[in-house]
């Protein structure tokens, strides 16, 4: 019998991406695995529930319509779980999102509230609803999905050599929401350094997740309960469609280096999910360009790590994991094929 057989696992944000992949991976881990799936998109949850029960008929699956931002809804959902699923063995705090690329001075209050309420308060609400019973039973594992954003601090924009132009007359760069720094190289070519603003709210919220995880580990050190943080970086989506390009105009110039999509250099752990589509307000083309020239992580890649951590023997705790695709060294450094 595997270590996860018969365990009750609760996953937030299970309707897509890493959450959905994690649900499937846990289902594969044991023939009697009881599952609780939570998300706001009920139709997707029901579809996933049907798929899992068809493939693994011996497991139990319970889908819950729950918005983690609503504390009373979280408490009600946990209190109304079926009796045979009330004792949660593994909690995966996966629900999270990012909206836009705005700077501190520009981000809207609605975007701030949505990100903080989901990424931080939602994680706390669900943890507080499940943890007391784990303490009573002296058994449980909390796995928080963090981000490389919670391990590094961003500046207002990330430098990117977008293109090199050799010019004879004046130039115009009709770019918005970006800092453009022109200069000349030793050969007289015009070098344009682009700084792309990042969303500081995601960074702040994921630093909070890291702090919460570390504090919880300290609080529970005298108990058998385990706490893990998995940091795959920001999540992005890639389906189909061309990359979005800078439009650079000049009276006369010769392009020495090709123009790259600014979104292809957004720092990340690069996990291919719906995360980037949400970030860019549903703009699939902008989301697609994030992955140009490299192979990102998939939701399944991260899910395997989550299940591996959960399946360790009771005396072993995988406290912290940072995962990148092979051609990424840190949040800012990637190698892309032409």
Automatic annotation (TrEMBL):
Keyword vocabulary terms for this entry: Oxidoreductase
Domain of life according to the entry: Eukaryota
Molecular function, one GO term: oxidoreductase activity
A Pfam entry, by short name: adh_short
Gene3D superfamilies, per the entry: NAD(P)-binding Rossmann-like Domain (3.40.50.720)
SUPFAM superfamilies (alphabetical): NAD(P)-binding Rossmann-fold domains (SSF51735)
Coiled coil feature spans: none
PANTHER family, per the entry: ALCOHOL DEHYDROGENASE
Family: Belongs to the short-chain dehydrogenases/reductases (SDR) family.
Protein name, as recorded: Uncharacterized protein
Protein source organism: Jimgerdemannia flammicorona
């Amino acid at each position: 019998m595997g270590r996860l057989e018969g365990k009750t696992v609760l996953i937030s944000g299970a309707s897509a991406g890493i959450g959905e992949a994690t649900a499937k991976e846990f289902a594969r881990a044991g023939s009697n695995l009881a599952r609780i799936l939570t998300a706001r998109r009920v139709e997707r949850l029901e579809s996933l529930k049907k798929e899992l029960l068809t493939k693994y008929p011996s497991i139990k699956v319970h889908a819950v319509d729950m918005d983690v931002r609503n504390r009373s809804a979280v408490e009600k959902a946990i209190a109304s779980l079926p009796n045979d699923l009330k004792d949660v063995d593994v909690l995966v705090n996966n629900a999270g999102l990012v909206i836009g690329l705005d700077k501190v001075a520009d981000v809207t209050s609605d975007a701030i509230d949505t990100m903080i309420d989901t990424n931080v308060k939602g994680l706390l609400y669900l943890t507080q609803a499940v943890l007391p019973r784990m303490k009573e039973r002296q058994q449980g594992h909390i796995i928080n999905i963090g981000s490389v954003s919670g391990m590094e601090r961003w500046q207002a924009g990330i430098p990117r050599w977008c293109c090199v132009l050799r010019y004879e007359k004046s130039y115009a760069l009709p770019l918005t929401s970006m800092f453009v720094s022109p200069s000349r190289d030793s050969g007289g070519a015009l070098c344009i350094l682009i700084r792309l603003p990042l969303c500081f709210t995601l960074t702040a919220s994921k630093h909070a997740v890291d702090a919460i995880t570390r504090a919880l580990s300290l609080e529970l050190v005298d108990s058998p309960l385990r706490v893990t943080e998995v940091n795959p970086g920001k999540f992005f989506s890639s389906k189909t469609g061309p990359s979005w390009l800078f439009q650079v105009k000049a009276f006369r110039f010769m392009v020495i280096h090709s123009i790259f999509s600014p979104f292809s250099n957004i720092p990340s752990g690069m996990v291919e999910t719906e995360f980037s589509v949400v970030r860019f307000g549903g703009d699939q083309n902008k989301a697609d360009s994030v992955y140009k020239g490299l192979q990102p992580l998939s939701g399944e890649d991260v899910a395997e790590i989550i299940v591996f951590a959960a399946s360790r023997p009771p005396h072993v705790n995988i406290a912290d994991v940072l995962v990148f695709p092979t051609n990424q060294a840190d949040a800012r450094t990637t190698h892309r094929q032409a």
